[in-house]
Amino acid sequence: MAIKGFQGTSLLDYPGRIASLVFFSGCNLTCPFCHNPSLVLAPETLDDYPLEAVLEDLEARREFIDGVVMTGGEPTLAPELVCLAEQVKDLGLLVKIDTNGLAPQVLESLLQRRWLDFVALDLKTSPQRYGELHRGPVSLGVLRRTVELLLQGGMEYELRTTCVPGLVEKRDIEALGKLVSGASRWVLQQFVPEHALDDGCSALQPHSPEAMEDLRSVAAGYVDEAVLRGL
């Protein structure tokens, strides 16, 4: 796992704030609908970004960015993550992480050190169906632990689910809802078939706006706020 991409500016999950994006390679899932397949399946085809070079660039940008988003792939697998988070905080910048939640020990370590300001947790499908998202076994206990860490409070977060037809239907939202009951915010994202890891997903027709609203209504029964994104 390594830093494989660096993007200058994007919106951070705070109103009116701007962030730089750092992309890490590797993942402990192989979701068929993944929109960054090269980071998961072929990281050797992408150039590495030395940690020192990324930090130098962030130092130069610190006057006009508010934070850094660490994404992937799955950033919690990268040995550089903890060091990068610490040094980004030393620059006075906010840190957001996008994660699938399958490495709660890393997340907990960062939270204890107060090196995270925002966590976006991607919930893929019904917990019982996570085995469909990888070529090896997936522990549901670690996912539950991550949810517990977020619900315990102390920082901002959002739960996110990309609503892939066949993988995310009402029964799957209900199963996830039981896992995250009492959470503050759950975002249901429209599925975009382009660039999917699996060719079969590229041919899928996204849920209609009406179907997405139905899914949102189900999710709203479990959390304080359920919203749609990408319609």
TrEMBL record:
GO terms for molecular function: 4 iron, 4 sulfur cluster binding; catalytic activity; metal ion binding. Residues 13-231 form the Radical SAM core domain. SUPFAM superfamilies: Radical SAM enzymes. PROSITE patterns: RADICAL_SAM. Keywords: 4Fe-4S, Iron, Iron-sulfur, Metal-binding, S-adenosyl-L-methionine. The keyword Metal-binding applies. Its cofactor is [4Fe-4S] cluster. The keyword Iron-sulfur applies. NCBIfam families: NrdG2. This is Anaerobic ribonucleoside-triphosphate reductase activating protein.
